[in-house]
Specification:
7 helices; alpha+beta
Length: 284
């Protein structure tokens, strides 16, 4: 008889069901799984190890069976402690291994009949989750129907709506596209105000997509990449060493929202434990 191979879960299905955890080097995979088990069915739990020494890097990944389980764990577990580590853990959504563009975990795209207005769509989904806004556009591929873009109060709200949506809604998470503003559509006084700045290409007006990171020289480029890759949209990461105790990294995202979020979340974060990284706007 041939031995049956263990089933390996699809890390990208369902979406946003995998979490990145900074947990400290004393936490083993078993302890990490036991800690997250109360939030739902854990399909896979992995601790990243140093290839040379086999020692833990203090980084873990937890894959849940459902998106809502991961969302609940993210909401409730971030900042808690796992014994014997004294430092609180940091939990983020792990970036997808197949999607090259960021998806917004607060936004869903659903199909709905044209006779339903935005208030009716909002009322239907508000039975389960807190809906902030609804935008309706005609469905070009299916005349007589609309496509609704719903933005939710939290990741958990969006996840619950995604899982409980009717099959005919064909719900899926949707990325937020940056809004394009044409100067030609603005009042004349507004256009005259902005044009001198556009000609000079002032760095203060350039979109914030590049960050400068000061960190320990013990960190490799791959480690820094993994840390900032927990926020979707990472395009590039380069590191330079000056021979001292600090290194300088340049991190680039493909959208301003991700860059701003990375700066807010990771500035002065301890990585490795005991050493803080400094994250600044790349234009500074």
């Amino acid at each position: 008889m041939t031995q049956e191979q263990p089933t390996v879960p699809d890390l990208n299905s369902p979406p946003f069901s995998r979490l990145f955890v900074l947990c400290g080097k004393q936490i083993a995979a078993g302890g990490l799984e036991q800690f997250f088990a109360p939030y739902g069915t854990v399909e896979q739990c992995h601790i990243v190890q140093d290839q040379a020494t086999g020692q833990s890097k203090g980084i873990g990944f937890v894959k849940f069976q459902k998106t809502s389980q991961a969302a609940r764990a993210l909401k409730e577990a971030d900042g808690k402690h796992i014994e014997p580590e004294p430092k609180p853990i940091k939990v983020e959504i792990a970036s997808s291994t197949v999607e090259s563009k960021p998806l917004d975990c607060l936004r869903l795209k659903v199909k709905c009949p044209a006779e339903l207005d935005s208030d009716a769509v909002k009322a239907e989904f508000s039975k389960i989750s807190a809906v902030n806004s609804v935008q309706l556009v005609p469905d070009k591929k299916s005349p007589g129907n609309n496509v609704a873009y719903l933005t939710f109060e939290s990741f958990l709200d969006a996840a619950l709506a995604y899982e409980t949506a009717k099959p005919e809604h064909k719900a899926k998470f949707a990325k937020i596209k940056p809004r394009k503003v044409s100067l030609e559509s603005q009042p004349q006084d507004t256009k005259s105000f902005f044009r001198p700045f556009i000609r000079r290409r002032s760095s203060a007006l350039l979109p914030l997509t590049k960050l400068t990171v000061l960190c320990s020289s013990t960190l490799t480029q791959n480690q820094i990449w993994r840390l900032f890759d927990i926020i979707p949209g990472l395009m590039n990461c380069s590191v330079s060493h000056d021979g001292g105790s600090l290194s300088t990294a340049t991190v680039t995202y493909n959208n301003t929202q991700s860059a701003k979020y990375a700066r807010e979340k990771l500035h002065k974060f301890e990585y490795p434990i005991g050493e803080k990284i400094i994250v600044k706007d790349g234009n500074e």
